[in-house]
Design brief:
The protein has 164 residues and is of the alpha/beta class. It contains 6 helices and 6 strands; from the N terminus they run H-E-H-E-E-E-H-E-H-E-H-H.
Length: 164
């Protein structure tokens, strides 16, 4: 994301909406700067990250699998990229972050929270997994994890990786 374009879009959207704006940013070389510009322009929070541009080639036809050649990769393969993005933006800016990208179990949710996410988004695992049961499993696992760490609230775990 080009930081100045992010700022312009968020400013324009924020100026006409009466509801909080949450800017969703993808992986880019200037992620922290783009995040800063989004917040300066009026975003209340950030969702990190979007899908990652990817491609598959059919090894027998030697043609791209997708008709438009590229598509958005999501789910567990992008999780380490998403955790890194949350960690870097939180370290520099301390904004409210929704961690998105490969959250499929309590451990992947916990990683996002430890990196600085106040909330997590479950997409691919919900759609391709067991739906509501995956969310219930994540919540149950997070409760057990908090007890094991001796934490009273999930709030105590937000950004903990920056304090140890």
């Amino acid at each position: 994301s080009e930081p100045n374009i992010v700022r312009t879009i968020v400013r324009e959207v924020s100026s006409v909406l009466r509801i909080p704006v949450i800017a969703k940013l993808g992986i880019c070389d200037k992620l922290v700067t783009s995040a800063s510009r989004a917040l300066e322009a009026g975003a209340r929070a950030l969702t990190l990250i979007n899908t990652v541009k990817a491609m598959y080639i059919d090894v027998f036809s030697a043609k791209p699998v997708l008709s438009n050649v590229f598509g958005g990769l999501s789910g567990p393969p992008i999780h380490p990229l998403a955790v890194r993005a949350v960690y870097e933006v939180y370290r520099e800016l301390r904004p409210e972050i929704i961690g998105c990208g490969g959250v499929h179990d309590w451990r992947s949710a916990a990683e996002m929270i430890l990196a600085g996410a106040r909330a997590v988004q479950v997409g691919t695992a919900f759609i391709h997994g067991s739906g509501r049961r995956v969310v219930e499993s994540i919540l149950s696992g997070l409760r057990s994890w908090l007890r094991m760490l001796g934490l009273k609230s999930i709030r105590e775990a937000i950004g903990l990786a920056h304090r140890v």
